Amino acid sequence: MKRVYNFSAGPAVLPEEVLKEAAAEMLDYRGTGMSVMEMSHRSKTFAGIIQTAEQDLRDLLAIPDNYKVLFLQGGASTQFAMIPMNLMRRKKADYIITGQWAKKAWQEAQKYGKANVAASSEDKTFSYIPDLSNLAISEDADYVYICENNTIYGTKFKTLPDTKGKPLVADVSSCFLSEPVDVTKYGILYGGAQKNIGPAGVTIVIIREDLITEEVLPGTPTMLRYKTHADAGSLYNTPPAYGIYICGKVFRWLKNLGGLEEMKKRNEEKAKILYDYLDSSSLFHGTVKKKDRSLMNVPFVTGDKDLDARFIQEAEASGLVNLKGHRSVGGMRASIYNAMPREGVETLVDFMKKYEKEIL
Ligand code: PMP
């Protein structure tokens, strides 16, 4: 067996320790004689798994008691509708458009009310985060929406916008648990698990309790009401049980390595190795404004499509896989999530140096 360095944007690399543990527990989870996949979600054993996972996540992010943690399904994309359906009581929200995912969320919200654009970076292919110093926030906005880390373009909000008292809703799919955050600054933070946390199929929503009410838009299905899931402790119906179990193992892995401060330190070190090289290279260069660079997704190009394609192909043959950029941007993108070891980034940079020498 040989594992590759997997730079996929998601589903993405998971910690090897977690995969090994899951493999060891596959046929007989701790004396139950069955795998977690085969187990009732109403069993005592599964109750232990989901409660421990939630507590570990609460510990990692220091989630205050007035926030609920929901383990849902439907991916981040289902939240694009669920957020306005549950929050747009005055039928108005402000969106900051920093990429395709924010744009999709904004387009979806227009089905339910007035979704304004408070700022956008579309004029320069989303290669920067717009100026947040004086946003035009609507007086009667129900919430302000951001996509905090832009997976496709490789930008990240380094400061949060001043929402002028409105609840901040953030899609953190591609920066979840990559560094500490102050949960109290958000009304909702949410993301699909398949980048930094676990398998696809689990969506984690952390939501302030006062935003969970019965007053949802008329016609909102039971399954799309936050209250349904909050009241039932994420067990209203069958949850993505195996996925939650793996997420729980990743939370424990993070705790054991020292929590999010330590994770942030490691992520900064890893990203610096790659960005420093990009800044010094005569062949490769980064595509976004330096101050807005993501620690998780690093897009880069040579400026020549054929050289890009050859690079991706040769890298793949050397065990550095999934480096192709998103189809809307082209070039390359290295996603270096929590579980990507430092050696993976070092190996990539060594390979890039070798390629540069060959070409120039
Ligand atoms: N938001 C962001 C920031 C993403 O990167 C993605 C997926 N790449 C999505 C939303 C959509 O997620 P899902 O496929 O879980 O609906």
TrEMBL record:
Q: Where in the cell is it found?
A: Cytoplasm
Domain of life, per UniProt, equals: Bacteria
Cite the GO molecular-function annotations of the record. Answer: O-phospho-L-serine:2-oxoglutarate aminotransferase activity
**PROSITE patterns, per database record:** AA_TRANSFER_CLASS_5 (PS00595)
Entry keyword set: Amino-acid biosynthesis, Aminotransferase, Cytoplasm, Pyridoxal phosphate, Serine biosynthesis, Transferase
- Cofactor(s) recorded in Swiss-Prot or TrEMBL: pyridoxal 5'-phosphate
Q: Hey, which family's this protein in? A: Belongs to the class-V pyridoxal-phosphate-dependent aminotransferase family. SerC subfamily.
Protein name from the UniProt record: Phosphoserine aminotransferase
Q: What organism is the protein native to? A: Sellimonas caecigallum
